[in-house]
Design a protein that fits this description.
The complex is a heterodimer of chains A (339) and B (693). Chain A has 339 residues and is of the alpha+beta class. Chain A is built from 12 helices and 12 strands. In chain A, helix 5 packs antiparallel against helix 8. Classes of the chains: A alpha+beta (339), B alpha+beta (693). Chain B: It comes from Goodfellowiella coeruleoviolacea.
C-alpha cells in the first residue's frame, strides 16, 4: 500500500476541489472496493478525500412522484426503505442480492455505481491489464473467462461491471446527479457507464473530480411490476454470472411497457432495448419472451469459458418475464439470499 | 488390552472448554501474542514460474522510513540444511514456481513492509515453464510410495481378463479440481531469538513437529526452540507441516536481531502453504449379472511440484472398499513448475472416493440395482487387500440407518422424474471411509497440584476440533475423577511432546498416552496422591494393528435441486451416518462431522483453484473468487452415528472423526444431481453450466 494523504470533506464543493486539484486524488466512500485496491496496489492514489460525512444520506420524494437517493445512502438502508420496497422492488431485490450483509452496511449508492470490475487479471498487478495499465494488454482475452463479457466487449477489454444495483437502476431509467469542477449535471444511468472500446481504463463518463451527489428515480405507475433475478455460482456472496432487471406493464394480456437490463454480460449494465422493442405491444407469452431474448442476444460473442452465459441469459429473462406477467400483485423483496 | 476404558465423562456433550475465550475474543492466536520490539515482514514473490533471479534492486525499498532490512538470496543468512527445498528460502536464486518467496522486507509496521515489498525491483532470466497436468503426458512417473507410505501400485488377480469377461462394464474418467485449504485464520508466525534460543508463536497443527522440523533447518538444537500455539483457527492439513513462512520469519528475526511477525495474506496462501492436487481418475469396473463386482481398476494421474514430491494416495480407498477378486490401482505423477502440494482434509480418501463412489452409482444403475443394495452385495468379509479381518466395519449399518432416517425406501430410481416448481429434485447416496490410525511419539505428564487438581500436560493441538475439551474428558475417566478436577495444558513444546493433529489420529494417539500416564500415576500413587506427585506415560504399541484392518465408515445421503431453466444447483438436504468407534464428545463430534460434510458440499459445488497455464498461477486467489460454501448454500444438514464398539483400535475405542465427514459427500451430491437431471457430472465442481443446453 502506498502512503497517501487523507482528508475528510465537510461540504460538496470542498470535496470536489480537493480531488480536482490533484490528478492522483480520489473520493473515498464506503471503501469496500477502494480499500482492497489500495492493499493490492491496483490503484495508488496520493490523496483520499473522505466524503462519508457529506450530507448526502437522505432518501427524499421528488416533485412528480420520483425519489432522490443521496449518494451516501448505504446499500442496506436503501434496500430497507419502505418507498423502495413498495414502489421499486427491482431495486430492493438487486441491492439485497449484492455482496454480503456486512458489505452492504458499508457500501454507498454512489460507490456502488463506481465499483470496478472483479476481473481476476485487473485485480492482480502481476498480470497485464489495459484497464489497470493502459497499453499493457488484456490477460483475460485468452485466459480464464467464465465471468467475462459476451456483449459489447472490445479487443482491449472483456471485463464485466459487477454491480447488481446499477442493473436495476438501468432498467428504472434512473438519473445520476453529479457536482464537478465544471458545475452540476444529470446523466441518465444508461449513459453513465461506458463500453470499453479503446479506453477500458475509463469505466464511466465522469470527469476527474466530479462527485456523484444523488441518484434520481423517476415516478412509476402503480400498475408496473418489476423484479430482479441474479444467477450465480453460489447461493449468496457471489457476483452475477447473469442477472436480469425487468419492469413490465400489462394491458389486456399485452405488454404495454417493458424495461429490461442485464448484468454480468457486459462492461456496463446492459439495457436490452432490442428485447424491449419485441416485447412492446406483443402478447405476454412464452414465445414472445423467447423472441425478445433472442433478439437481444443474437449479437453475443462468447469467449472460451463463457458460452453458457448466452442460454443462461435467455432462460433467465424468459423466466423473469413469465413470473412477472403471471403475478397479480407487486413482488416483495426477499429478506435473504435464500434459494 | 483387555477392554475399553469405561466411559463416564466420555460420551457427554460438554461445552467447549475454550468456547468462552473464543467468543469473547480473549483466546490468543499466533499473530496476537504480545511480543516487545516486534517488527513485521512482508515477502517478495516471484512473478515468473521458472528461471533465475538475475538482479534485485532494493534501493527504493531500503530508502523508506521504517524499513529495517530487505532480505534477498544475496544477503539472507545461510540455513544449516537445505534438504527440504520447500523450506530452503532465500538460499539460491532459482525460481521453481510463480509466487515463490524471493525476498522479504522487515519494517516497523506491516504497512511499511508491504509498501516496501512492492518497491523491490526484481530482474529475471526466465525459462519456459510447464504447469499442464494431462493424462497423456510422456513424463508421468510412478513415485516410490504415496502419502504417507502406501505402495504406489497394487495388483491382484487378472484385471484385463475379468473386465473382458464381465457381464456389466464401466470405463469412465472422473476428475477433481485443484483445491486450496482456506482456514479462517491465515498462517502466521512470530519468531523471537534470545541469544541462541528461538521462540516461535505459530499457527500449527503440531508444535512438536514444527520444532523438530525447523531446528535442523536453522541449525539449532531442538531443545533451544520453543513453539507455542494454544489455539488454531482451522488448519485442515495446511498447518500440519511447517511451510516456508515459518523458516522465513525465523531467518529474518536472526538477520535483524529483533522479533519478526509474518502473517501470510489470503492471496499468498494460494502459493505458499500447500494445496490438494487435481486428480484424473480412470476407473474401470466389471460385474456379473447379479451385481457382484469381479474387477476394480483405478488409475490415477495427479501432480506434484518439480522441487518436492507429494503423492496424494487417491486410489488407496479403492483397495479396501469393495470385494472383487481382480483388482488394480496405480498412481502416476507429473512433476510441474507449480507450488508444493500437501495435506488437505482426508488426502487420498477425499478425491478418491469421489471417483469410486460415483462409479459405484453408475455400476449400480447399469446392474439395475438400488445403489445401497449394490454396495451391500459387494461388502467384503475381510480387507480385500491384506486379507485381514476388519476390527469393525459398519458400512452396511450406516447405509441402512441413513436410508431409514433419510426416507430412502420409496425412492423412484428413474432420473429426472421429480419436479417441484421449476426445480428438478433428486437424491443420492455415497459411502465414506477413513483409516483409524494412530501416530507414535506422544508423552503425557500428570501432576497432582496444590489445589488438589490433576494437571495433564502434552503438546497436543486444538484446531477448533475440541481437543481442549475431549482430551480433558478422557483424562477424567482415565483418572476416575470429575471433569472439573482436571486441568489440561496443550500447545507448547515446553510440555511433553505430542504427535501432529493429522490423519484423524489426535484423540486416539494423545488419548492413549493420557490413559497410559493415568495408569502409571495410579499405580504409583494410588487414589489419594499428595501434592507434587507426578507420573508420565506414552502411547503403548497396539498388537492388534498387524492383525486387523482398521477403518471408520459412513454413509452420506443428499437431496439436490437443479433449476430446470438455469441449471442452478442447491443441496437442500444432506444427511450422514457414521461408524467411527466411540464418540468422546457428541457436541464437538457433531461439529466435526457437519464441518466435514459442509466442506464436501463446497468441494462438490464450488471449490476450484483456477490455474492460468500462461502465467503458472492460481488466478482466483481470494475468498471472493475462490468460492467456499456460504451459509445460504447449506440447508438441512444432519450428522448421526451408530453405537460402535471396537475393542481393537485402541483402549479408548475411538476411530478419529476429523476427516471422514468430507469423504463421499461430493459423490453423494453428484449422484443426487444425476438422479435429479439425468446428467452425470464426472468433473468437479458441479456448476450450473453443466446442466444448460
Amino acid at each position: 500500500m502506498n502512503p497517501f494523504e487523507y482528508r475528510r470533506a465537510t461540504d460538496v464543493a470542498e470535496a470536489v476541489a480537493a480531488v480536482a486539484e490533484r490528478p492522483d486524488a480520489v473520493f473515498l466512500g464506503g471503501g469496500t472496493n477502494l480499500v482492497d485496491h489500495l492493499k493490492l496496489g491496483v490503484t495508488r492514489p496520493g490523496r483520499l478525500v473522505d466524503i462519508t460525512r457529506l450530507p448526502l444520506d437522505r432518501v427524499e420524494p421528488l416533485p412528480g412522484g420520483g425519489v432522490r437517493v443521496g449518494a451516501n445512502v448505504r446499500n442496506s438502508d436503501l434496500a430497507a426503505e419502505p418507498v423502495i420496497r413498495s414502489r421499486y422492488p427491482v431495486l430492493a431485490q438487486a441491492l439485497l442480492s449484492g455482496a454480503s450483509g456486512q458489505l452492504r452496511n458499508l457500501a454507498t449508492t454512489g460507490g456502488n455505481l463506481l465499483q470496478r470490475t472483479r476481473c481476476v487479471y485487473f485485480q492482480d498487478i502481476t498480470t497485464p491489464c489495459n484497464k489497470r495499465m493502459p497499453g499493457s494488454g488484456c490477460a483475460a482475452l485468452d485466459g480464464y473467462t467464465r465471468h467475462h463479457a459476451v456483449l459489447g466487449a472490445s479487443p482491449q477489454c472483456v471485463a464485466v461491471h459487477p454491480s447488481d444495483m446499477a442493473v436495476a437502476l438501468a432498467a428504472l431509467d434512473a438519473v445520476v446527479r453529479t457536482h464537478g469542477p465544471a458545475g452540476q449535471r444529470a446523466i441518465p444511468l444508461v449513459e453513465f457507464h461506458r463500453l470499453p472500446g479503446a479506453q477500458p481504463e475509463r469505466d464511466t463518463v465522469l470527469d476527474h473530480g466530479e462527485l456523484i451527489t444523488a441518484v434520481d428515480l423517476p415516478a412509476v405507475p402503480a400498475t408496473r411490476r418489476s423484479a430482479y433475478r441474479k444467477v450465480r455460482d453460489r447461493a449468496s456472496y457471489a457476483f452475477a454470472l447473469v442477472s436480469v432487471a425487468a419492469e413490465v406493464e400489462l394491458r389486456d394480456g399485452e405488454i404495454s411497457q417493458a424495461r429490461i437490463a442485464f448484468g454480468g454480460l457486459a462492461h456496463k449494465p446492459w439495457r436490452a432495448q432490442r428485447a424491449e422493442q419485441v416485447l412492446r405491444g406483443a402478447p405476454a407469452t412464452a414465445a414472445t419472451f423467447q423472441r425478445a431474448a433472442e433478439a437481444e442476444l443474437v449479437g453475443a460473442q462468447p469467449l472460451a469459458d463463457n458460452a453458457f452465459k448466452v442460454p443462461l441469459a435467455r432462460n433467465t429473462l424468459v423466466s423473469v418475464l413469465t413470473e412477472l406477467t403471471e403475478l397479480t400483485g407487486a413482488t416483495e423483496p426477499t429478506q435473504e439470499d435464500t434459494p | 488390552m483387555t477392554g475399553l476404558l469405561p466411559a463416564r465423562v466420555i460420551g457427554q456433550p460438554l461445552e467447549r472448554a475454550d468456547g468462552m475465550a473464543k467468543v469473547t475474543g480473549t483466546a490468543t492466536y499466533a499473530a496476537e501474542h504480545p511480543v516487545p520490539g516486534l517488527t513485521h515482514l512482508h515477502p517478495v514473490q516471484a512473478t515468473i514460474a521458472r528461471g533465475r533471479v538475475s538482479a534485485v534492486d532494493t534501493a527504493q525499498a531500503e530508502a523508506l522510513d521504517g524499513v529495517i532490512a530487505v532480505l534477498t538470496p544475496a544477503n539472507a543468512p545461510r540455513l544449516a540444511s537445505t534438504e527440504d527445498p520447500e523450506l530452503a528460502v532465500l538460499q539460491s536464486d532459482e525460481v521453481a514456481f510463480r509466487g515463490q518467496v524471493i525476498g522479504a522486507v522487515v519494517a516497523t509496521t506491516p504497512e511499511i513492509a508491504r509498501h516496501a515489498a512492492g518497491l523491490v525491483q526484481v530482474s529475471y532470466v526466465e525459462q519456459p515453464h510447464d504447469v499442464a497436468l494431462r493424462p497423456d503426458r510422456a513424463d508421468l512417473y510412478a513415485p516410490d510410495k504415496v502419502n504417507p507410505a502406501f505402495p504406489t501400485d497394487t495388483e491382484q488377480g487378472d484385471v484385463p481378463s475379468a473386465l473382458a469377461d464381465a457381464a456389466v462394464r464401466l470405463d469412465q474418467t472422473y476428475t477433481t479440481a485443484w483445491y486450496h485449504n482456506n482456514p479462517m485464520e491465515p498462517h502466521a508466525t512470530i519468531a523471537s531469538w534470545d541469544g541462541g534460543d528461538l521462540t516461535l508463536h505459530d499457527s500449527t497443527q503440531g508444535v512438536t513437529a514444527v520444532r523438530d522440523t525447523v531446528a535442523p533447518v536453522l541449525g539449532v538444537a531442538p531443545e533451544r526452540v520453543r513453539v507455542i500455539c494454544p489455539h488454531v483457527g482451522g488448519g485442515f492439513g495446511s498447518k500440519g507441516q511447517p511451510h516456508v513462512h515459518l523458516v522465513l520469519a525465523a531467518l529474518a528475526a536472526k538477520a535483524v536481531g529483533r522479533p519478526v511477525r509474518l502473517v501470510v495474506t489470503r492471496q499468498q496462501m494460494f502459493a505458499l502453504v500447500g494445496y490438494r492436487t487435481p486428480t484424473i481418475q480412470r476407473i474401470r469396473m466389471g460385474a456379473d449379472r447379479t451385481g457382484r463386482l469381479t474387477a476394480i481398476s483405478v488409475d490415477v494421474v495427479e501432480q506434484t511440484s518439480r522441487i518436492k514430491e507429494f503423492a496424494e494416495q487417491t486410489a488407496v480407498p479403492a483397495r479396501m472398499m469393495y470385494a472383487a477378486p481382480h483388482r488394480r490401482t496405480t498412481h502416476r505423477l507429473a512433476a510441474l513448475d507449480v507450488p508444493v502440494p500437501s495435506w488437505m482434509r482426508a488426502p487420498g480418501e477425499c478425491p478418491g472416493m469421489f471417483g469410486l463412489e460415483t462409479a459405484v452409482d453408475e455400476m449400480a444403475a447399469a446392474c439395475g440395482l438400488d445403489p445401497i443394495e449394490f454396495r451391500v452385495r459387494n461388502e467384503p468379509e475381510r480387507d480385500p487387500e491384506t486379507g485381514r479381518p476388519f476390527s469393525s466395519r459398519n458400512l452396511v449399518a450406516c447405509l441402512r440407518e441413513g436410508a431409514r432416517r433419510f426416507g430412502w425406501a420409496h425412492r423412484d430410481p428413474t432420473p429426472r422424474a421429480r419436479r417441484e416448481a421449476g426445480w428438478l429434485v433428486g437424491t443420492g447416496v455415497a459411502a465414506s471411509t477413513y483409516p483409524a490410525g494412530r501416530i507414535a511419539g506422544s508423552s503425557v505428564t500428570i501432576r497432582f497440584g496444590p489445589d488438589r487438581r490433576y494437571q495433564v500436560e502434552t503438546a497436543a493441538a486444538d484446531l477448533g476440533t475440541g481437543t481442549w475439551t475431549a482430551l480433558r474428558q478422557i483424562a477424567a475417566d482415565a483418572l476416575g475423577v470429575d471433569y472439573a478436577e482436571v486441568d489440561l495444558r496443550i500447545g507448547d513444546t515446553a510440555l511433553p511432546p505430542a504427535s501432529v493433529a493429522g490423519g484423524s489420529t489426535g484423540i486416539a494417539s494423545w488419548g492413549s498416552a493420557v490413559l497410559d500416564a493415568a495408569e502409571a500415576f495410579r499405580d504409583k500413587f494410588g487414589a489419594n496422591p499428595s501434592e507434587g506427585d507426578e507420573a508420565s506415560g506414552g502411547m503403548p504399541d497396539n498388537p492388534h494393528t498387524e492383525r486387523y484392518a482398521m477403518h471408520a465408515f459412513g454413509a452420506q445421503f443428499a437431496e439436490v435441486r437443479v433449476r430446470e431453466d438455469t441449471g442452478e444447483i442447491r443441496v437442500s438436504r444432506l444427511l450422514g451416518v457414521f461408524a467411527a468407534g466411540r464418540i468422546v464428545n457428541p457436541r464437538t463430534a457433531r461439529s466435526q462431522f457437519i464441518g466435514g460434510m459442509t466442506m464436501g458440499l463446497s468441494m462438490a459445488l464450488h471449490e476450484q483453484s483456477v490455474l492460468d497455464q500462461r502465467f503458472g498461477h492460481i488466478v482466483n486467489h481470494d475468498l471472493a473468487e475462490y468460492h467456499i460454501a456460504a451459509n445460504a448454500d447449506v440447508a438441512e444438514l444432519e450428522a448421526h452415528w451408530i453405537d460402535e464398539h471396537d475393542p481393537y483400535v485402541n483402549p479408548l475405542g475411538t476411530k478419529g472423526i476429523g476427516e471422514i465427514g468430507i469423504v463421499g459427500t461430493a459423490a453423494a451430491i453428484s449422484n443426487a444431481a444425476h438422479h435429479a437431471t439425468g446428467v452425470r457430472v464426472r468433473d468437479l465442481p458441479i456448476t450450473l453450466d453443466k446442466f444448460l443446453s
